[in-house]
């Protein structure tokens, strides 16, 4: 894992801890995505996930389920879904990760393609990411 991705993952984990959410990274089969147990307020990340660049967004997404008040044990997927619960978690995950990613990047240097690529964020979230980045710089 490169230093930038590892730093972002650590920031998301710290964010989770600050919101009374536990986070554990364990080895699972490489095709098993992360999951969240909302009642236990616990996120489980897979440290054998084939694309570790996805881990910061995955962690933010699972954290968002708890913060959004979702219920149950939910497993992350990077596939498009019409589920309002998953869409709301994606939106909140972007609002968590965007300020961390762009904190030291001047607005004129902000690059949506780099952001999406660096964190392996699904392409179908690009419009939402652009809006979130714009809001970040409006309030920066």
Automatic annotation (TrEMBL):
> Where in the numbering of this chain does the IrrE N-terminal-like domain appear?
26-99
Name the Pfam families on file.
Peptidase_M78
Q: Could you identify this protein by its name?
A: ImmA/IrrE family metallo-endopeptidase
- Organism whose genome encodes this protein: Lacticaseibacillus chiayiensis
């Amino acid at each position: 894992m490169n230093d930038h991705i590892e730093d972002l993952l650590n920031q998301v984990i710290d964010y989770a801890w600050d919101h009374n959410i536990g986070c554990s990274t364990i080895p699972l089969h490489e095709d098993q995505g992360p999951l969240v147990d909302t009642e236990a307020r616990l996120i489980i990340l897979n440290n054998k996930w084939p694309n570790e660049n996805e881990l910061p967004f995955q962690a933010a997404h699972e954290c968002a389920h708890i913060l959004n008040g979702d219920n149950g044990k939910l497993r992350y997927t990077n596939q498009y879904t019409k589920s309002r619960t998953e869409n709301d978690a994606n939106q909140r995950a972007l609002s968590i990760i965007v300020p961390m990613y762009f904190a030291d990047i001047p607005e004129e240097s902000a690059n949506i393609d780099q952001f999406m690529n660096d964190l392996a964020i699904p392409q179908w979230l690009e419009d939402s990411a652009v809006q979130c980045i714009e809001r970040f710089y409006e309030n920066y």
